[in-house]
């Protein structure tokens, strides 16, 4: 979703001849979808507009997120929330707990609370890409999970290299990787990692953009995931009985 210039000017940026001090009303957008959230931000300093440069302020990111609930499907609201909690040296980091705190503090008249509550329960901190979020979201909605994001383990190699798995079910040794541009550019190191993981009993499933965009192929992937879970559960039970 790419907001129009008019939409951006209404929701994202506040530009005035006088700097906003955080006291009294500020001319943010008003409307049935976002009025209660904005009124809340006007009088609560921790959610006040953020200074960008002289005469320019932005809506607080968390308030923007709840306002976008009026326009985004649940999946895209989760994608946006995950992006806000992503690892980065260049922006302020927020956690899923910050979203939950905001929802608890919003006025009871906020009209999209149910959707936001559902989204907060599906957020994951420190994800790597929007496509990984979409993959995790669709697996959860299909009844799979819970998952561990960016699961770290030590490979059984001479240098004991650390590996991070996009999405994992650690107790069953199942790794689900989104094969995007990064993996395509690092296929040699990825292949060595896959070999080390396989030798340690891990099953690795890969998903790409085509799989996510094609409902038939995604159903095939879910069937493969179900079969892998059943197989790994059998192996786990057998090992526990030994």
UniProtKB/TrEMBL annotation:
<dbReference type="InterPro" id="IPR011335">
    <property type="entry name" value="Restrct_endonuc-II-like"/>
</dbReference>
<protein>
    <recommendedName>
        <fullName>DUF559 domain-containing protein</fullName>
    </recommendedName>
</protein>
């Amino acid at each position: 979703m790419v907001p129009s210039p008019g939409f951006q000017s209404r929701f994202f940026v506040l530009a005035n001849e006088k700097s906003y001090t955080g006291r009294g009303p500020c001319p943010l957008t008003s409307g049935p979808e976002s009025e209660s959230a904005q009124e809340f931000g006007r009088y609560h300093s921790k959610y006040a507009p953020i200074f960008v440069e002289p005469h320019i302020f932005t809506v607080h990111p968390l308030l923007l997120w709840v306002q976008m609930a009026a326009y985004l499907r649940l999946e895209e609201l989760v994608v946006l929330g995950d992006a806000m909690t992503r690892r980065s040296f260049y922006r302020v980091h927020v956690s899923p707990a910050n979203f939950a705190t905001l929802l608890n503090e919003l006025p009871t008249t906020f009209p999209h609370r149910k959707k936001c509550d559902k989204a907060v329960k599906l957020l994951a901190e420190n994800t790597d890409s929007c496509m990984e979020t979409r993959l995790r979201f669709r697996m959860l909605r299909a009844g799979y999970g819970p998952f561990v994001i960016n699961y770290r383990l030590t490979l059984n190699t001479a240098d004991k290299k650390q590996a991070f798995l996009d999405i994992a079910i650690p107790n069953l040794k199942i790794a689900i990787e989104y094969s995007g541009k990064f993996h395509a550019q690092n296929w040699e190191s990825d292949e060595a990692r896959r070999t080390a993981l396989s030798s340690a009993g891990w099953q690795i499933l890969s998903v790409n953009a085509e799989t996510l965009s094609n409902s038939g192929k995604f159903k095939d992937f879910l069937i493969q995931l179900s079969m892998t879970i059943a197989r790994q559960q059998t192996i786990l039970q057998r090992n526990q009985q030994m």
